[in-house]
């Protein structure tokens, strides 16, 4: 790719990033840096939802190279190449609409990368000046390397032609970035507004353990959900709670859960049998009951603790919404809006569980910090 194209893309991403950077700069918040972190959380959540929209509209190869579009900075400049590809295959994978969806996703991702670079730069600068706890540079530096890894998987998603394990890892890393930024935001909140409520540590220990268990269970379900989506197995079962008229349908776990293979193919290069897609869908569907039970019990234990009650209430609401949208996508034959909402609900659970984990830890550690 020509260096002029890279410069044009960098300038576009910087323009996208200037709005959130300006919001943080002119903010009357007691800590502009804290504001910047939470803007990063907000945009990362948006990126995950838009990434789901990109995947669900089959726009992941809207521009079949990376980082540009046919070696150019945007679909306007690649108009001829896109129209030629669209003429050969009118329904995709390359169309003008899909190219724009894919490039908007990339620009938003690059803008978030710029925000994290800004966090890291400010942290190092302020740390060298005053050694303030809010600006310890280790965490934002780790975020920088993490977002670079996420960017690498974004590139491999395109260059390896939507290989399911790569796309699923790209999704999990996006959720991981959301969790890391949320944790960092919680730390900034704690430094700005120390806890006033005192909760006996003995009441918090079981909630902390359950919150960690809930995060682990949710991570497994995120992988399974990503595996369903990247293998296009959402409609492998079109009824609920049965699948193909049976509680336990015919399933091919060996091919369905073989990780390193091409999209729609077995490891040997043959077409993936429908029973493999059924296995992928069925495991995700049934593991959802484990998620509901574990997260539901976490909500029950956290609810009586006043500082944790708002988070418990929000988790309960999102969990119910997830169950509703998950079943509705089956009965309504996979409408796009519901599928995007289901992905947004998963991201919301990641955000809320991270906040619950941090809040429970902070409240548990607060009495020791005051001794």
Automatic annotation (TrEMBL):
Where is the protein situated, by its record's location annotation? Membrane
Q: How does it sit in the membrane?
A: Multi-pass membrane protein
Protein name (database record) = COX15/CtaA family protein
Alphabetical UniProt keywords: Cell membrane, Disulfide bond, Heme biosynthesis, Iron, Membrane, Metal-binding, Oxidoreductase, Transmembrane, Transmembrane helix
Write out the transmembrane intervals.
6-24, 36-56, 107-127, 139-159, 165-184, 210-228, 282-303, 315-334, 340-358
Species for this entry = Pseudoduganella chitinolytica
Q: At the top level of its lineage, which domain of life is listed?
A: Bacteria
Primary residence = membrane
Pathway where this protein functions: Porphyrin-containing compound metabolism
């Amino acid at each position: 790719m020509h260096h002029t194209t890279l410069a044009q893309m960098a300038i576009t991403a910087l323009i996208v990033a200037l709005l959130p950077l300006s919001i943080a700069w002119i903010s009357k918040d007691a800590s502009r840096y804290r504001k910047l972190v939470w803007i990063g959380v907000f945009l990362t959540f948006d990126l995950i939802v838009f990434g789901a929209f990109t995947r669900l509209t089959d726009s992941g190869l809207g521009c079949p190279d990376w980082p540009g579009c046919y070696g150019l900075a945007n679909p306007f400049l690649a108009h001829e190449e896109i129209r030629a590809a669209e003429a050969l295959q009118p329904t995709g994978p390359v169309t003008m609409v899909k190219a724009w969806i894919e490039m908007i996703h990339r620009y938003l991702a690059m803008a978030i990368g710029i925000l994290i670079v800004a966090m890291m730069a400010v942290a190092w600068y302020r740390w060298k000046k005053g050694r303030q706890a809010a600006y310890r540079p280790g965490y934002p530096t780790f975020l920088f390397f993490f977002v670079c890894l996420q960017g690498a998987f974004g590139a491999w998603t395109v260059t390896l032609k939507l290989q399911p394990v790569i796309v699923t890892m790209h999704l999990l890393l996006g959720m991981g970035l959301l969790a890391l930024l949320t944790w960092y935001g919680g730390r900034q909140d704690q430094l700005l507004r120390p806890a006033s409520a005192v909760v006996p540590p003995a009441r918090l220990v079981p909630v902390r353990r359950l919150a960690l268990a809930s995060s682990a269970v949710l991570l497994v379900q995120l992988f399974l959900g990503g595996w369903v989506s990247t293998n296009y197995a959402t409609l492998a079962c079109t009824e609920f709670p049965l699948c193909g008229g049976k509680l336990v349908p015919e399933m091919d776990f060996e091919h369905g859960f073989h990780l390193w293979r091409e999209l729609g193919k077995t490891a040997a290069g043959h077409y993936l049998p429908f029973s493999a897609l059924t296995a992928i869908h069925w495991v995700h569907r049934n593991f959802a009951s484990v998620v509901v039970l574990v997260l539901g019990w976490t909500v029950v234990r956290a609810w009586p603790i006043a500082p944790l009650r708002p988070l418990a209430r929000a988790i309960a609401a999102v969990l119910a919404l997830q169950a509703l949208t998950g079943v509705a996508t089956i009965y309504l034959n996979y409408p796009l809006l519901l599928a995007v909402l289901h992905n947004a609900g998963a991201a919301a659970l990641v955000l809320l569980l991270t906040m619950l984990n941090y809040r429970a830890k902070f409240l548990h550690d607060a009495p020791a910090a005051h001794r």
